[in-house]
Amino acid sequence: MTTSMADERRDQLEQYLQNVTVDPNMLRSDVFVDFLKLVQLDTFSITTKKVSLDIFLPDGRSIKVEALTSDTAERVLEVVSHKVGLCRELLGFFGLFLIQFCKEGKLSVMKKLVDFELPYVSLRSSEVENCGIGLRKWYLDPSLDSRLMDCRVAIDLIYMQAIQDIEKEWAKPTEEQKQKLEALRKEDNQTKFLELSQEVRHYGYVQLDPCTCDYPEPGCGAVISVGNNEISCCVTLPDNQTQDVIFQMNRVKCWQVTFLGSLLDMDGPQQTLNQNLELRFQYGEDSHWQWFVIYTQQAFLLSSCLKKMISDKMVKLAAENPEMQIEVPEQGKSRKYHVQQSQQKACSSFLPRKSKIKIVEVDCGFGTIKEDL
């Protein structure tokens, strides 16, 4: 086999594996999930053994859980929920995340761990310093808080996260709201605190680290917050003025994540790859479709959030219209509900490694995930 033939076969295999890992039908297969687990362990030369994992709660405290290096995020989440006393039927409202702890008490949510991902391996293989596994709520429609009000532990968790989000300035209360929330916090009135939080700007959103975008012109700095069926961008213009731009999810036709790489060391025994990520989405307004690009290392987290907002919408429709059936797309699973609306569908495609999307100094591997709604 020639070098070019081997490269082509490798590209085709990579493209196949990328596509099947986002197929819910494949991820329901125990055989395929076992294969994905083995790939993760073999890639980083990790053997199956018992380990103790620190799982960080939204208030910064951590709990230790016993697990195997081969345990998936889905399994570890079950263990965590049992340890904290979270009702099993509410597991779907929470998830495990890779979190970076930064200076001055700041933190960054790097990614959502998908069901088949191995938390121990993800933590060990992360190139980001000061990382940990965190438990956070996993829904982006703030009104879904109401589904958790019958579970004391669930209330505690989302209350902790609400306080953290306000302290980190991800949620942005007015001065009047801040005073009322502080009074309710002193009274330890969690239910009223969460009810008032519903009125706070960006409550329940996921905020990304500062990044850049191409709107209204290339190279503009941006702070992106995602939630409540919108992508909220605070854009810094070249004259240092700021502009708030809101993109409604019902006008997003599709999006794609692209990872671009450049080889940093071509002469060493192992070539070093510098990766940069972007998420671009097609947005319609006044019968005109336009592509917008966000350059961020959290592009996969952003993509997960966009998909989650669609899923949250389907869950609400299911509750409001129990007589009709719809299948809600989820990471690694698929749940059927009954709603009076045609199914929204998410599918994925990838560009081969050699496809040229952007010019880089050296040809190397990059691909595209495209989510068509």
Automatic annotation (TrEMBL):
<feature type="domain" description="Sortin nexin 17/31 FERM">
    <location>
        <begin position="51"/>
        <end position="139"/>
    </location>
</feature>
<feature type="domain" description="Sortin nexin 17/31 FERM">
    <location>
        <begin position="141"/>
        <end position="200"/>
    </location>
</feature>
<dbReference type="GO" id="GO:0032456">
    <property type="term" value="P:endocytic recycling"/>
</dbReference>
<feature type="domain" description="PX">
    <location>
        <begin position="3"/>
        <end position="37"/>
    </location>
</feature>
<keyword id="KW-0813">Transport</keyword>
<dbReference type="InterPro" id="IPR048767">
    <property type="entry name" value="SNX17-31_FERM_F2"/>
</dbReference>
<dbReference type="Pfam" id="PF18116">
    <property type="entry name" value="SNX17_FERM_C"/>
</dbReference>
<dbReference type="GO" id="GO:0035091">
    <property type="term" value="F:phosphatidylinositol binding"/>
</dbReference>
<dbReference type="InterPro" id="IPR011993">
    <property type="entry name" value="PH-like_dom_sf"/>
</dbReference>
<dbReference type="InterPro" id="IPR040842">
    <property type="entry name" value="SNX17/31_FERM"/>
</dbReference>
<dbReference type="InterPro" id="IPR036871">
    <property type="entry name" value="PX_dom_sf"/>
</dbReference>
<protein>
    <recommendedName>
        <fullName>Sorting nexin-31</fullName>
    </recommendedName>
</protein>
<dbReference type="GO" id="GO:0005769">
    <property type="term" value="C:early endosome"/>
</dbReference>
<dbReference type="InterPro" id="IPR048763">
    <property type="entry name" value="SNX17-31_FERM_F1"/>
</dbReference>
<keyword id="KW-0653">Protein transport</keyword>
<comment type="function">
    <text>May be involved in protein trafficking.</text>
</comment>
<dbReference type="Pfam" id="PF21271">
    <property type="entry name" value="SNX17-31_F2_FERM"/>
</dbReference>
<feature type="domain" description="Sorting nexin-17/31 FERM">
    <location>
        <begin position="204"/>
        <end position="313"/>
    </location>
</feature>
<comment type="subunit">
    <text>Interacts with CCDC22, CCDC93, VPS26C and VPS35L, associates with the retriever and CCC complexes.</text>
</comment>
<dbReference type="Pfam" id="PF21273">
    <property type="entry name" value="SNX17-27-31_F1_FERM"/>
</dbReference>
<dbReference type="InterPro" id="IPR001683">
    <property type="entry name" value="PX_dom"/>
</dbReference>
<comment type="similarity">
    <text>Belongs to the sorting nexin family.</text>
</comment>
<dbReference type="Pfam" id="PF00787">
    <property type="entry name" value="PX"/>
</dbReference>
<dbReference type="GO" id="GO:0006886">
    <property type="term" value="P:intracellular protein transport"/>
</dbReference>
